[in-house]
Each structure stands twice: as structure tokens, then as C-alpha cells.
Amino acid sequence: MRYPRLLSSTVLLIALAAVPIACSKKVDDDAIAKDIQTKVATDPDTKDADVTIASHDGKVTVSGKVPTPAVQQKIEQIAKAEPGATAVDDQTAVIAPDAAAAAAPAAAAASMPAAAPAPAPKPEPLVVPAGTAITVKTGEALGSKLSQSGQTFTATVAQPVSVSGKTAIPAGSSVTGTVVTAKEKGKIKGEGELSLTLTSIAIKGHTYTIQTNSYDSTSKGKGKRTAVATGGGAAGGALIGGIAGGGKGAGIGALVGAGAGLVGGALTGNKQIEIPAESAISFTLAAPITLKD
Q1: What is the pLDDT of residue 258?
Q2: Which pLDDT tens digit goes with each residue over 122-156?
Q3: Are 93 and 147 in the same domain?
Q4: What is the CATH number of the domain that holds 60?
Q5: Four-point Cα dihedral 82, 85, 87, 91, nearest 10
Q6: How buried is 288 (Cβ within 10 angstroms: 0-12 exposed, 13-18 middle, 19+ buried)?
Q7: Fewer CB within 10 Å, N side or C side of the chain?
């Protein structure tokens, strides 16, 4: 009747003996991997290989980079010869040292953001030089009696102005000017005086302050004949000449378009200096204009 108790004891002993065996598997895998890693690192043929060894249930996995197929094969042999190793999974890649060195800068360059394209050079600004003539058509009537000193007047560019083959100031550009002097001529004595200058010009949405030589004209007292130059109609007549008999002014005019007429002249007798609206007058730039893009 003692056999059942003896059988139970035997089974228990066998079960207890199996526990250390089951628990030792992970320790064996670690030992296998460590031993193979050491052998690869110390072997003259494989010491330069960059590999990692792992083991699971005796199956050895080799991963990383090797310089040649011969080194790859030697590592496999070391792993297969390891006691406890049941199989070898070789996942290494053969990469020559020169190729690895070349790949590193390329990879670094690929990871960097693309450089922004260099900005296109800005074109040189267009400069209208001093001494350039600008012919304008007055927007209102002006005169020695009609106007007042300090008064602002408007005009438009009558003819385009080109610089280096490019149109710098298009026809029709708005211009602002100032009546520098306006003095009515006396009936018996005293000169009539009219002096004009341009102060600003609008070109392609930009307004520029400008400096020009003044347009000056004087008219002597009663009885002396002044310079006369008739225009092509009432809208075309305007002052153009210096005053006969010693007048100090020098009118600057130009023929502008059909029907605009020649810039007209000062009148005789007691009449004042008069410049009708739409009259063409030329001014000369006293300072250059640097145009924006």
C-alpha cells in the first residue's frame, strides 16, 4: 500500500528539478550572446565589424554592418560554433568603409532644409539727370495780375522723358508748381512780373519732390512793345520770350502737339503777362530725380 505515496514523491522531485532548468534558459541566452559578442570583438578578422548579437531560445540573431562578405561569413561561423546555439539568423549588411564615409555627409545633407534661392539682384534705379527739360501743359490760367505769389498750380507732362532708352517720365504725369512771383504791371510805370517753378511730380504711383529752374517773365510799362508770339488759338497762346527793350525774363517754350500751338508771348501796351490754361511751358531740372521701382 506504500506504492502510491512513493510515486507521488517521485513526481514531486521530478517537477522541482525541472524548475531550475526552465529558469536557466534566459541566462543561457544572455551567456550565448555575450560570448559570441566577445569572440567577434577580439577576432582579428571581425573586430572592426559593427554588429549586435542577440539570442532567444538558442537562436542567435546577428545584426549591424560588416565591411566585407568574408567578415560576414566569419561572424556566422563564430555564432554557429557557440555551444548552445541552435540556429543563426544573419541580418547584417555589407557596407564598405568608403561607402559608409560617403553616405554620412549625404545623409546629413539630406536631413538639412533646402537652402533658399539667392534673391535676384535689384535693378539699378533709374535717374533723371539735372539739366533734363520737362515740358508741361498748365492746368489753369496764370498771369501777373491773375495769380498771386506762393500760389500752387497744376500741370501735366506734355511729352515723355526718356533716360537710356527707357521712358522715365510718361506723358500725362501730374505735376505741381508754385507761382514764385506775380506782380501786376502799373498803368503808367512799373514792371509786370511772373515767375514759376515746378515742385513735385507723380510717376507711376510715386510722388517726387523736384527742383527746376524758374520760368521768369517781365513786362515793361505803358508804351514799350513787349515780345509777342501768338499761339495756335486761345488755348494755345502763352508767354515764351524775353521782354523786348531790356526785359530780364527768358520764357522757355515748345511746340506740343497739333492744336496746342507755340507757347505764346507777353502782350503789348498795358496788358498783363498772361498764360492761358493748356499752355505748354518747359522747365529744366536743377537736381536729378532718382526713380523708385
Answers
A1: 31
A2: 778 899 999 999 999 999 999 999 999 999 999 99
A3: no
A4: 3.30.1340.30
A5: -60
A6: middle
A7: N
